[in-house]
């Protein structure tokens, strides 16, 4: 009987230690009011509008329960501080607790995943808007950057724009490796469009 009691106590201590040292113990968990179910809430608003209709519906929320199941902080939109919200990372099967995947370029378009998040572009499609210009090239000449001139990797119609008024639209500028923000990319005195 004494040996069984000692084994039982040891087992209890091991269970308590495993719970304390588990990854689930890394974020504070607050008790829920059983009369006010909050598992469907999204306290930090980090859901993802996957159908891009402009509204995060109930189905698109990254709920507190999902935060708990993924061991993310329900009061922080970006648990790993990598630049992409937790709900977006989970939607695209990235790790919301590891910021290194935010800096990876998953589709080789010269745009890291956290910049794909910024634009709400597809991190697995190098040309999200299917306009013939890679997302990263459009980002390079976007208004997100100081020297940009308005390109947008999520707007397919910008391939027809000519922000530098040189007679060459953005798609042609991309195809000819010229600068869509500079009317004379090679400084030869003639506009790029000639």
TrEMBL record:
Protein name: Uncharacterized protein
Signal peptide: none
Source species: marine metagenome
Record field: compositional bias (Low complexity): 65-74
Compositional bias segments (type: Acidic residues): 35-47, 122-140, 176-194
Region (Disordered): 28-88, 119-194
